[in-house]
Amino acid sequence: EIVMTQSPATLSVSPGERATLSCRASQNVRSNLAWYQQKPGQAPRLLLYISSTRAAGVPAKFSGSGSETEFSLTISSLQSEDSAVYFCQQYNNWPPGFGPGTKVEIK
Amino acid sequence: QVQLVQSGAEVKKPGASVKVSCKPSGYTFSDFPISWVRQAPGQRPEWMAWIDVGNGNTKFSERFQGRLSVTWDTSANLAHMTLSSLGSEDTAVYYCARPLYRGSYLPFQYWGQGSLVTVSS
Prior knowledge:
heterodimer; A: mainly beta; four-stranded antiparallel beta sheet; 0% helix; B: four-stranded antiparallel beta sheet
């Protein structure tokens, strides 16, 4: 089973700044990596898939990169509505697994 | 528009079973599998199983083998997830989810609103 890790666990950023979140897979997942945003009391929302393709309706401030075992999610010009937990998920191998999440806080 | 509407919260005693339902709408059901994902408080989501609505095929996470059932009710167009032999560690929000593309299983574009299952004596 592929193990997903994320760093940092918590990220505190000032409004207007940029945040970069990291995700690592224990094995090569090619580009089969998705990012989700989850706000309290809500289901996860798909942001990116195939590492860097934005899902429908996702603003361009969210961008992704990486392949194989190292991935990143960048959120530019952070606003209060971006405060959430962000999870990565590999879907190259079964079972599909999520990372532990990065909590993004706005200062 | 695509929607997945789930049944309400449940409180169960240890050792009991729970059944959660998911009613999809807004698309051709047989074109997409439905997955079940759970999330314990403060934890990452965990994929449990999927069912291919078109042919009834299923696939399960090994963690739940033997106590998890997922079905599709063709007459009611409802997906069901039944988890038995509940323990406190099964307290979580349970989601149904549909993938992005026809013919794929992942990633999950559409999610139900979640059903909280609390296991407590």
